[in-house]
Design a protein that fits this description.
Alpha-Beta Plaits, about 525 residues, ten-stranded mixed beta sheet, 19 strands, single chain
């Protein structure tokens, strides 16, 4: 049961007299009934006026009986010792008169609330709900539920504190106790009112775990400077931060309000606060869908194609990349704002990736479209493959964020298979390279290669060549098939990188060796799942 009891009568009258809207009155009385907040504003105000006007017998209540979950409450000040033990002495002292009921109703109905600045007034009405839903529908998102978020001006916390202290002073002057020191949070009360309306208008349920977010950002320029006195009294709470336009963030203001002494607050801010001239502004109404993740495997058949855009000192070196050839189609179909590409390792621009291909994943940020059938994913895969002869994609599928972790798990313990075309300066015969086939679990020490030192830290990496198999071609060429630990620098294993990789093919053959071509033949990561053609 959520209700207003006789002990709440002086609180209700004091708040109404100072320009507080009926829904904020309910918040200050810690009313947890969601249904009460959803009553029309004028009806609720009339009910509260009647409640104040008619002295009720002890135990009488004005209420709507509903089974609601417990509400979140905001503690406005530390509980004073013994506050819970204070009781009425039976007689209710004379409160300031509310005046003529209809006149009070008319003035209250037309004024902006001195606490919520109109958020629990105009912005709970059907016209604003329709405005939000028009914005959502025009953005053309796919969604089956929504989560609603709201950003409030930080000065609302100052006004809540001021209203509380003003009420506390008046109750003390009347010799009445103030049995509560917390209130229902404004955000929660607002969502109680707005959720059912949004849900009905959009035709989908509100769900706190939904990936589709509808957000409203409120501002109130008229009262923006009301927080500024806190920077003088609590300067350590307001530190400049990256990506913050102002130091007066909601959390900084709340932190300062927790520290400031009551007497200092009363010196700087009127209690209760005065009613503003203007309502809040709904600065932004935004929609955002949670990211969608697509995975697959790609083959790269070109020796002139980087995995990601190749840009050096702001200058683009090659016109395309594996990432772009794939993302172009995914971005268009999912209608996303941006993407993040990742893969199980990477190959150099002049290295082909053959066999079953290299696992990759793409995060599509804020997609408008999120539902694809298996058949639609097949058609999308075919469109990527038809667009270029440089790459091919297979096993394209939707995956979860957590599943992507499997691509990176134990990456360095995985194995990769390569085929390298090698040149030697001195002539070789078959028997000169035959011993390579017998080498197993060859341990390497590889200093960070010179060619990647600009983007990788200097370190000595220990890697394994599990097996090798040589294929003689002529006196200066042979092909070497290698199965290695992932993360092995194959080019450096062949030519030695000026002695930075030991041992190497040159040192094993006792002659200069270099690599002419390199192909990745398999990446032994069992992900993503293979799909039937």
């Amino acid at each position: 049961m959520s209700s207003l009891a006789e002990k709440d009568r002086p609180i209700v009258q004091l708040l109404l007299n100072t320009g507080t809207c009926p829904r904020c009155v309910l918040r200050f009385c810690c009313v947890g009934s969601q249904m009460l907040y959803r009553h029309p504003h004028k009806d609720l105000l009339k009910e509260l006026q009647e409640f104040v006007k008619n002295t009720q017998e002890e135990g009488d209540t004005v209420c709507v009986d509903v089974a609601d979950p417990p509400c979140k409450r905001l503690r406005l000040e530390p509980r004073e010792e013994g506050a819970d033990e204070l009781q009425h002495n039976g007689a209710i002292p004379q409160l300031p008169s509310a005046g003529d009921g209809s006149a009070a109703l008319d003035s209250s109905a037309g004024s902006v609330c001195n606490v919520c600045l109109g958020i629990l007034q105009e912005f709970c009405e059907a016209d604003f709900v329709k405005k939000v839903c028009q914005k959502v529908n025009s953005a053309d998102y796919q969604f089956t539920s929504f989560v609603f978020s709201v950003s409030l001006p930080p000065q609302l916390s100052v006004r809540e504190r001021a209203a509380w202290l003003g009420m506390k002073q008046q109750m003390r002057n009347l010799g009445l106790p103030l049995p509560k020191d917390d209130i229902v949070q404004l955000k929660e009360a607002y969502k109680w009112i707005i959720h059912p309306q949004l849900s009905e208008e959009l035709g989908v349920p509100a769900d706190g775990k939904s990936l589709f977010e509808v957000s409203v950002v409120f501002a109130h320029p008229e009262t923006d400077e009301e927080c500024h006195f806190l920077a003088t009294t609590c300067p350590d709470c307001f530190k400049p931060a990256k990506n913050k336009q102002s130091v007066f963030t909601r959390m900084a203001v709340i932190k300062a309000l927790e520290k400031i002494k009551e007497e200092d607050f009363l010196k700087h801010f009127p209690c209760p606060p005065s009613s503003p001239k203007n309502l809040c502004d709904a600065l932004e109404i935004q929609c955002n869908n949670g990211a969608v993740f697509v995975a697959g495997r790609y083959n790269k058949y070109s020796r002139n194609l980087p995995q990601t855009p190749w840009i050096i000192d702001g200058e683009r070196k090659l016109e395309s990349s594996v990432e772009e050839l794939i993302s172009e189609h995914l971005m268009a179909q999912f209608k996303a704002d941006s993407f993040n590409f990742s893969s199980s390792g990477r190959e150099d621009v002049d290295v082909r990736t053959l066999g079953n291909g290299r696992p990759f994943a793409m995060e599509l940020v804020n997609p408008r479209r999120i539902h694809f059938t298996a058949e639609e994913m097949k058609r999308l895969q075919q469109a990527i493959n038809d667009s270029s002869d440089k790459i091919q994609v297979r096993d394209l599928q939707l995956v979860t964020r957590s599943a992507i972790g499997r691509m990176k798990e134990g990456e360095e313990e995985k194995t990769k298979t390569y085929s390298a075309l090698i040149w030697t300066d001195k002539a070789i015969q078959r028997e000169d390279i035959a011993f390579l086939d017998d080498i197993k679990e060859l341990k390497l020490e590889q200093k960070t290669p010179l060619r990647v030192l600009h983007r990788r830290p200097l370190a000595v990496r220990r890697r394994l060549i599990h097996t090798m198999s040589s294929e003689y071609i002529d006196q200066h060429h042979f092909r070497l098939h290698l199965k290695t630990q992932a993360g092995t620098y194959i080019k450096e294993f062949v030519h030695g990188d000026f002695g930075r990789t030991k041992p190497n093919i040159g040192s094993l053959l006792n002659r200069t060796a270099d690599i002419l071509e390199l192909d990745v033949e398999s990446v032994d990561v069992d992900w993503p799942p293979t799909l039937a053609d």
